[in-house]
Amino acid sequence: MGHIKKLTLLHSNDLHGDFLAEQKEKDFVGGLSLLSGYLNSVREAEKNVLYAIAGDMFRGSIIDSEFKGISTVEMVNLLEPDIVTIGNHEVDYGIAHLLFIEKCAIFPIINANLYIKTNRTNLFTPFKILNVDGMKILFIGIITEEVLSQTKQDSLIGSFIDTAQAADEVGRICNAYNSIDIDFTVLLTHIGIEKDLELARLLNPAWGVDIIIGGHSHTVLDQPLQENGVVIAHAGHGTDNIGRFDIQIDTDNNCIDSYTWEFVPINHRTSPRDEQMESVLQKYKGVTDEKYRRVVTRLKKALTHPNRNEETALGNLFADALQESLGVDIMLLGSGSIRAQTLGPIVDFGVLVETFPYDDGIYMLKVTGAMLRRMLKHMLRDEAFLGVTEFYQLSNGVKLTYSRSKRDFLTLQFRGAEIQDEQVFTIGLQQFHYMNLEEFLDLSPVQVEKLQKPRVISTSCHDILEQYLKSHRRLSRSVEGRIAITA
Question: Residue 149 pLDDT more than 80?
C-alpha cells in the first residue's frame, strides 16, 4: 500500500445568485451566510480542504442582475473558493464583461476551451495545479459549445464544440504535466451529467483523471456515479446544499485509495451563520429593495409555470402581453426565460425580474405558414419531451394538436382557421432566440430574410411586461389547449 494522505473536497455548482436564506417550515435553509459558515467550520475541523465551484455563479437573482454579476463575485470572494470554472450563464452579460468581472475575483477561474478565434488565445487559464500538504492536484476547466448558446452573439469567440474535443484537450494537458508527478486530477465541468458520463468514457485511463465535478443539469445524486474508472459528482444547485468528498489519496500510485461522499444540507443545524457575509449582503439588498419593492400589479390568482416543455398559464400571460403590446401576429416566447414556477397574486417589480430575468430585445420576422409549421415541428421533436431543448409559449390565436406517434400536426390553426402554407405571419422572437434561430427553430437566417429583413421592434422585454401588467387589472390565464400533445 502506498503513502496515504487525506483530502476534503467540497463542491457547489449552479449557485445562480441564490444568496438569501429561505424559511422552509421552521428552518432557515441555504443562503451565503450559512454556506460560508459551513465552509469555515470544515476548514477549521479538517487539515486539507479545497472548495470548488463548477459554473453558473451568475443569473437568477435581482442582486446579481442589478450589479451585473459584480455583487456575486464580491460575495463569492468571501466564500474563498480555491478554484472555479465558468458555466453558460457566466457569459450572459457578454464576454468582455466577464473578463472585467474576472479582474474582481480573488479566486482562480479556469477554463480550457474558450478562445479568441483569430489567434487561438485562451480567455482564461486552462488549468491550475494546487499544492496541498505536499500533494499536487491538477484541476482542468471544461465547457462545450453545446451549452454556450449565448456566445453565438460574439463572432470572435470560439469554443470546443463537443465532449470529444474536450476529451482531446484534457489528454493534451494531462500528458504535458504527468512528468511533474501529479497526485490527483479533477475535471471541473459545466456540461450536464449525461455529457460528463460521455466525457468519462472518452478519457484514456493513462491520463490519470480521478474525479469529474460537474454542473448545468442541476442533478441531485445519492452517491457519485462511476464511469470508466472516473468518479462523477454533482451537487444539485443553489446554496441549499453542498457536495463533500473525504478522499484518501495514494500519493505513490497517484490515485484514490478510498473515499466517502455526502450531499450535505445547508441549514442552521449543519451550519453556523457568517455575520461578515450578512453585512455585505445587506449592503446590496438595501439598494435593490428600494428599487424593486414597488408593486406592479395584482393578478386574479397565482399563475404557474411547472415545466418548460408544455403550455403553462404564466407562459400564456407573458406571450400574450408581448404579442398585444408589439402588435405582431404571433409571439414565440422562450419557455426557459421564465425562471420561477409561480407568480402572483401580488407581483412586485423584483419578483417580476426574478421570474423573467432576461431583458432581451425582441426581433420581428416574417415567415410563411410552411415555415411556421416547420419551426413548430422542430420545437416538438422527440428530445423536447426530455426537457433538454428550447421550447416556446405561444400567444393567443395559435392552436395546435400534435401527434407524437405520427410526428406531425393533427391541426395547426391561427384564429380558428387551419394555417395555409403560403400565408404570411409576423413573429416576435427574443434576441437570444433570434441569434440561435437555426439550432432552436430549424430556420436559417437566409430563409428568414427572403420575406423581409428581421428588425428589432423593442429593446427591452421588462419595459413591455411591466407596462402591460401595470395597465391591466386582475389579469389571469389558464392552460387552454394552445399546445395539445397526443400520445
Answer: no
